[in-house]
Amino acid sequence: MLPDGRAAQRVDTALGELIGEGRHVLLTAESGPEERYARWLAVKRGSVRAVVGTRAAMFAPVRDLGLAALWDDGDAAHSDDHAPQPHAREVLLQRAVTEQAGFLLGGHSCTVEAAQLVESGWARPLEAGREVLRGTAPLIRTVGEFDEARDAAARTARLPSLAWSTARDALRHGPVLVQVPRRGYVPRLACERCRAPARCAHCSGPLEAVEEGGALRCGWCAREVADWHCPECGGARLRGQVFGARRTAEELGRAFPSVPVRTSGRDHVLESVPEVPSIVVSTPGAEPVAEGAGYAAALLLDGWALLGRPDLRAGEEALRRWLSAAALVRPGGEDGNGHNSGNGNGDGDESGGAAPSGGGGTVLIVAEPTLRPVQALVRWDPAGFAVRELADRAELGFPPVARMAAVSGRAEAVDGLLSQARLPDDAEILGPVPYPVLEPGRPRRPGDPPPGEEWVRALVRVPQGSGAAMASALKTAHVARLTRREGTPVQIRVDPPDIG
């Protein structure tokens, strides 16, 4: 199982070369309903013995299942937003136990849940040795905020001098990948005088610049703003707070006028790029594969935008996205002919060492070097990072060490359900607190409150061994209330991905 159709297609091609054509099927949404159903029947009848697919393939009726393999379980695409919100990792884990099959969890990064499986003794780690990593991983270099403050190029063009020189040297040997956390042109603006965020007068949404010299537009209600003035100081000039992929591509196109610049994002995702000098600006998850040896270099920009999110998994998700991009870069010790001459990465090397000679791959990350996720990238140690995160969560009682359930709905409905549920003695109720207000213009998702309703949310926390009892108690109380038609329904989600 893979997180998206592009990755599933590549594995489908590789598996066909390995075991021969006609012995496996590909189950993705791109196949269409009729073709997908025909392939599903072939699996159920035992005509094929292997399945490659995305999230829905976790229920594929493979006969005599021998191995369930999941790639990149940290990707949000593996979690279904529709009830009962199954996660592919949990479903495949249960299938492996029930059907006595093997279970393989792989990825460039490591989730806290995967680290817990190893720590509990249920699973064993399969990791490459340090010598293998030194020979295959790219060279990692860092640029911190203090270095940017002293760098005139960084103050004027947002890219430090080291990033410019890294890209210029790498373009002699192949394509360069530039990862930008945000799409668009300039998605966040602020007053140049007082630095107050620029917001829409109608809905208070953030103003964004769609293109250079164009009118401002609200990112929530899409209204255009022709004459903006700061309500705090009266200023009329704006500065960018966050720059998107299109603005970055524009800047790089001016800096390297003779090099083609391509963009890959939500609106248009590139499958691959040729092994010729070019610049590829991509948002996380949309990075195309570089043909041949891989990218000559990768620039990971605006690390603060990923690390600064108010999310329990901010560091884990940032590291996952960085490693996924860095894995597309050729080894740090390769010369221009594709031969490996060693890698400068070491266990305690914070700066990544000197720039490699020849065509060795280099990854430059613009983020504070002392932060734990950045150090994990430099050492290429996602498992160690996940183990430390797991220890921190155990101390604080956060998932996955503790089991949680989110109960959302009207205040009286949530209170009524929690008062009737016979929760375990070790259960702890956090809240309820007001449900986060939906941003105007954002599409509604399964589980969101109806328009105009004010919801609250409570979290029920129990130790790991009481998770089943908690779920059973909430389900029983919920069914009883629905049967007696007491109040309005509530939304219940066990192990919610967001507890903020």
How would you summarize what this structure contains?
The chain is of the alpha/beta class and 500 residues long. The protein contains 15 helices and 21 strands.
Characterize the structure shown.
The protein is globular. It has 4 domains: 5-106, P-loop containing nucleotide triphosphate hydrolases (Rossmann fold); 132-183 and 245-387, Rossmann fold (3-Layer(aba) Sandwich), CATH 3.40.50; 186-242, no CATH class; 399-494, Alpha-Beta Plaits (2-Layer Sandwich), CATH 3.30.70. The longest helix is centred in the last third of the chain and has 18 residues, at 467-484. It has helices at 5-19, 33-44, 88-98, 112-119, 130-136, 145-149, 152-157, 161-170, 245-255, 303-307, 314-326, 372-379, 382-396, 411-420, 467-484, and strands at 24-27, 50-53, 67-71, 102-106, 139-143, 176-179, 188-191, 207-209, 216-218, 224-225, 238-242, 261-264, 272-273, 279-282, 289-290, 297-300, 362-366, 402-409, 428-434, 456-463, 491-494. The strands form 7 sheets. The chain has a 6-stranded parallel beta sheet, sandwiched between helices. It is of the alpha/beta class and 500 residues long.
Topology:
Elements: H1 5-19, E1 24-27, H2 33-44, E2 50-53, E3 67-71, H3 88-98, E4 102-106, H4 112-119, H5 130-136, E5 139-143, H6 145-149, H7 152-157, H8 161-170, E6 176-179, E7 188-191, E8 207-209, E9 216-218, E10 224-225, E11 238-242, H9 245-255, E12 261-264, E13 272-273, E14 279-282, E15 289-290, E16 297-300, H10 303-307, H11 314-326, E17 362-366, H12 372-379, H13 382-396, E18 402-409, H14 411-420, E19 428-434, E20 456-463, H15 467-484, E21 491-494
Parallel strand pairs: 1-2, 3-4, 5-17, 6-14, 6-16, 12-14, 13-15, 16-17
Antiparallel strand pairs: 7-11, 8-9, 9-10, 18-20, 18-21, 19-20
Helix pairs in contact: 4-13, 11-12
